[in-house]
Write a structure and sequence with these properties.
The protein is mainly alpha-helical. 81% of the residues lie in helices and 0% in strands. Helix 2 packs antiparallel against helix 3 (78-106).
């Protein structure tokens, strides 16, 4: 990958990843506030559908493009492979668990879905923070495929 192309993909990856992390922090704040104002789940549901999911999918796609187009590879280094697996898990969980919980809470099932949404936001925030740490420190060295 030429330097300008790589930097463009990297910029898009950082923007979407930081956006995903930022929206997750906002969702966590809304999930806490929604215990007193359940109508906030409607806003969270919209954010989940229109912001979180597109950011998640774009972060995953740009990460794959970057890994395949640079020296890091997708399976050459442990930190890249772990980050990829965790991101895939996060995208799947966002698509099928978080969004459905948000839709249930927005529809009025706050007593059951509300705590689940809060837990999902906490787990997501922890996961994205861990992925960020992996990106900065690049631990563990090469895999056997590297």
């Amino acid at each position: 990958m030429k330097p300008r192309v790589r930097k463009s993909w990297l910029l898009l990856h950082v923007i979407t990843s930081v956006g995903w992390l930022g929206v997750t922090i906002g969702m966590l704040v809304l999930a806490l506030a929604a215990f007193d104002a359940p109508q906030l789940y409607q806003a969270m549901s919209l954010l989940g559908d229109l912001v979180v999911l597109p950011l998640a999918l774009t972060a995953l796609a740009t990460g794959v493009v970057l890994s395949l187009g640079t020296k890091w590879g997708l399976v050459k280094y442990r930190w890249v492979l772990v980050k990829f697996v965790l991101t895939v898990i996060a995208v799947i969980a966002t698509t099928f668990s978080l969004r459905s919980g948000l839709h249930e809470a927005a529809a009025g099932a706050v007593a059951t879905a509300g705590p689940d949404v809060l837990v999902a936001c906490c787990v997501s925030l922890t996961l994205y923070t861990f992925n960020t740490v992996l990106s900065v420190f690049k631990p563990w060295g090469r895999t056997r495929w590297g």
